[in-house]
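Q: For a teaching handout, I want to show students what a protein-ligand complex looks like in token form. Below are the inputs, and the small molecule is FE2/S2 (inorganic) cluster. Please produce the holo structure.
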Amino acid sequence: MQISMTINGKEYSHDVEPRISLAQYLRENLDLTGTHIGCDTSGCGACTVHVDGAAAKACTLLAVQVDGSEITTIEGMANGKEMHPIQEAFKENHGLQCGFCTPGMVMTAADILKNNPNASEEEIRHGLEGNFCRCTGYHNIVKSIQHAAEKMNA
Amino acid sequence: METFIGQPVKRREDDRFLKGAGKYTDDIKLPGMTHSAFVRSPYAHARILSIDTSKAKTAEGVVAIYTAEDGCGAFGVPCGWQVDFKNGETMREPQHPLLAKDKIRHVGEAVAIVIAETQELARDAAELVQVSYEGLPAVTCPKKAMEPGAPKVHDEWEDNASFDWCIGNDRAAVEAALEKAHHVTEMTYKNHRVAPNAIEPRSYIADYDVNGDKWTLYTSTQNPHLIRLLLCAFALGIPEHKVRVVSYDVGGGFGSKIYHYTEEALLTWASKEIGRPVKWTSDRTEAFLTDAHGRDHIVHSKMGFDKDGKIVAHLTDEYCAMGAYLSTFAPAVPTYLHGTLFQGVYTTPLIHLNVVAPFTHTVAVDAYRGAGRPEATYLLERIMSKAAKEMAIDPAELRFKNFIPPFDGVKEPGYQTQVALQYDSGNYEAVLKRGLEMLGYEDFRMDQAEARKNGKLLGVGISTYIEGCGIAPSAVVGALGARAGLYEVGHVRVQPTGKVSVFTGAHSHGQGHETVFAQFVADKLGISMDDVDIVHGDTDQVAFGMGTYGSRSLSVGGSAIIKSIDKILEKGAKIAAHKLEAAEEDLEYAEGKWKVKGTDKSISFGDVSLTAYVPHDYPEGLEPGLDFSSFYDPTNFTYPFGTHIAVVEVCADTGKVTLQRFVACDDVGNVMNPMIVDGQIHGGVVQGVGQALLEEVVFDGEGQMATGSYMDYAMPRADDVPMIETDRTTTPCPHNPLGVKGAGEAGAIGSTPAVVNAVVDALSHLGVTDIQMPVTPQRVWKAMQSKK
Ligand code: FES
Ligand code: FES
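A: Here is the structure, written as tokens, with FE2/S2 (inorganic) cluster included.
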């Protein structure tokens, strides 16, 4: 099936099999390998991207389902060389170790703060419920998001 | 001058990860690359009657299909440890074939590999492979596996034991002391099976290049050189110098990516058969079914005390599952990485542990974060707290009564345990004191009493652990059954411009070596961190190495680098002396310069480096260049220790446990980067909390895994845990140059018993004395009901 979408501000058009997930499409067709795949049951959140401005699990969407949509992936978060404040905050607060969950965490964090710029610790933890991290124990991820919020609200 | 050791330097690896530019194996695409899928057994135990690949072979995009008949890897994947029976009989070590031949021994065992143009086509065709099985009864519990008449995993032996083993004092002496003890505390429980669950699934690409008859294996491993050795010398019998193993970024390991897996060998073999690269990336269910698991011990233990609460003897019997085949480190885990820690931090004079290690119809059990030491700590710390309750002594006080007194390993000698090892240095009272202070223990006890009056169930649990890290002195582990040395290699290449490339055999899969190693290298050489690059994860670049596990990277790998730095400074001094026309003894090295003592004459590290490579004006007889490689074999293990304290609230209506606070005071020796050490503790603690409260691999009676996805296997999420309160004491390791002990596993070792102790404490006034992990709401609720 022919699909077109805007990804990180650029237009793309491809002929894809209807069964291909958005995550596979990004990784295989566009070499946007920052979107990771950690499970097959929508459980880990490593694949989180933004579809029309809201966080979504790219492993659970078919590429054809988001035909015509606007997608942002982790590769589209920085402004050129300058990292997004959330990316900065993750670095400042050691919010990542192996880095595998990180793109999904950053995309989810952006969604949490977009909807609730003053999210409390509890709200942040609740918002991260769909994302596994096996390395950090979440401590520094929560701290990173709190610091990002401070910076973004300043 | 800026120094870096001990500073919370931000990680240089973060930029690539944060921008989605990390290079994990599945991110790699090679020209002409094919994809593969495995046909896996749905039975835990079965005879293979026939395999029909004819339909699959004609499916769209299929390149090749192989079964055991095709002669792949005649030897199978090897085991790296040999633990023989107590009576001298050799360990029973079955062949672990790359593809199952006549018999299936666990669900998920691979029967065929299907190679096709895309992953989807490979999976489609795999579904067309028809295998007919005759299902057989299975056994998954290590204790039941030893009962007479249990289904046998390997027909060639009379029962399911792979080996049995014991350590410590004479059993009769320990039993006699227990007979005479004033009080004996007894426990029977299961340290249940958990799945490591690195979020990056295992992924491999094998690429055979007919040009030069060479292979490259890209693999998500914790130890590329070890994989190359096992692959070449054992699994396939191919020349080691023709194989390059590369593991760039790896998305977590926790032990599960140490081992040489059958898929790695099979892909390497198949790539040459088809003359194209082959990729395989596990999906999550395959990961549950085929990644080595952790724990799975059935434990019966008795600890005896005198009337003052001093431990007099400790006797334990365990059944420890091996799974269907022996994974790389498996026999070492319930033995040398476990029994040798039964001294704990206590002066127990008599200890005996007996282990029976049976095969079961399950995937292998091997090292998982902490490997044997969490299991030892769980037992010691649960039984101490249970004993404290029974004897009506405060659990902190009982520990203080029994601690080994402080010793630094320099002025005071190391502590000789009853279980073979000698501890390096320790101050166990100090960490417990600090932990109690951080918590506000006295106040908590008052709050708890108050809360109970209002029907609120609050509990506190203490655990004081010790672990053995920095594995390992080669001769010692060799005598214990290791089939490899456990030294590390550190190669330091100074470039002509004074820039430094460091090649390490340690491997980072989250630990931040690129930053931490550069910190101490920059300090030791007195140069900027920007001038130091750390290279790892490529056997063509790094001379050799044993990889990262057992919290060994800094204590063993770092020490190897220090050895090379010493050689560089020694040779550099000769060059400097020549250039400065001074005697070597008159020079001192500081801040990146050799200086003639008491003068202002000096030469910089950069100038000496250049001279070493442009040796026009040069000491006679000295080789040009500034490039050294060293092997460091430690003289002992290192022994980090600490106190973990958990506070929980139990919901009286539902039995749900909420972890309210978690306090960790750890002593990991000297600290290179406190930010990273804290991060390691946080992550480890939450993994340990996961085992205590949520995680369990469950099999049904037929050996089917009931927990094979994230829908069924509960792992800690952000809202299951609080912030972790950390602090440290510092007792340097006396036997390695950096004085470091290792921090990778500590969190997972200390935390599990702290949490379960807290739950039991919360319920103790109701009469609950023990509870089986994971402490689910259902178990808690049942425990509460049973006491009504
Ligand atoms: S890969 Fe999408 S949720 Fe796990
Ligand atoms: S940083 Fe490794 S899974 Fe989160």
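A: Two things your students might notice: Chain B touches chain A through 57 residues (CB under 8 Å). Residues 553-580 of chain B form the longest helix (28 residues).
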